[in-house]
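User: C-alpha cells for this one?
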Amino acid sequence: MTDATSKRLSRPGPAEAGRDAVLEAAAEEFVKHGFTATSMDGIADALGSTKGRVYHYYRGKAEIFLDVVLHGMHDLLLMIEPIATESGVPARERLSRMVRSHALCMMEASNPQRVAVQLVQYRGMPELATHTETTERIIELRRRYERAFRDVVSEGIADGAFLDVDPSLAAKSMLGSLNWIPMWFRPGRGADEVARIADFFSETALRSLEAEGA
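Assistant:
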C-alpha cells in the first residue's frame, strides 16, 4: 500500500524480521496489559531478549505502540477495502462480509488490529500526545476505514436494500459495536463459537438496516 501506512516509526536498519518480531511481542503485551501498564522490559521479556534489542529499533514505548497501530490499520484496510469495492456484488452481501470479517479479526489471532482500537482510549496521554503527525495519520486511516462502511451503506440505500438512514451514523454504530469485542471476548473459544458470534454481528447489522420487503 503506497500511502502513510507504509511509513515506519522504527530506526532505519536492514533487519526487517527483527523489527517485526518486536512489534509482534509488543502487540501481545499491549493487548494483555494496555498501553499504560506495558513496559519496555515487558516487551523485551515477551520477545525473549534484552531491552537493548528493543531499543535498537525504537526510541520508546510510544513509537512501538503507534507502529503497532499503523500496522493494525494497514491490515484492516487491506482486508476490508477489496470487499467494499468488489464489482458486481450487492451492497447487502458486501456489508455482511465486511462486518463478519471485522468481527473475526477482533476475536482471532490479530493483536495489531486489536491494539489499533485502543488509540481512542490512550491518545491523550503525554507520551502519545507529542506524536501529533503520526496520530493524525492514524486518525485519517480510521476515517478511511469508516468511509468504506459508510459508502457501502449508501449504496444499499440507493438500491433499495437498506432503509433511508444516515450512512455515517450507521457506520459509526456498527464499528463501535465491533471494536468493543476485544473488551469482552476472551480467546480460547472454539471455532464454531467464534463463527457464531461473527455471524450474529453480521446478521444484526443487516437487520438494523434492511428495508421492508428487500
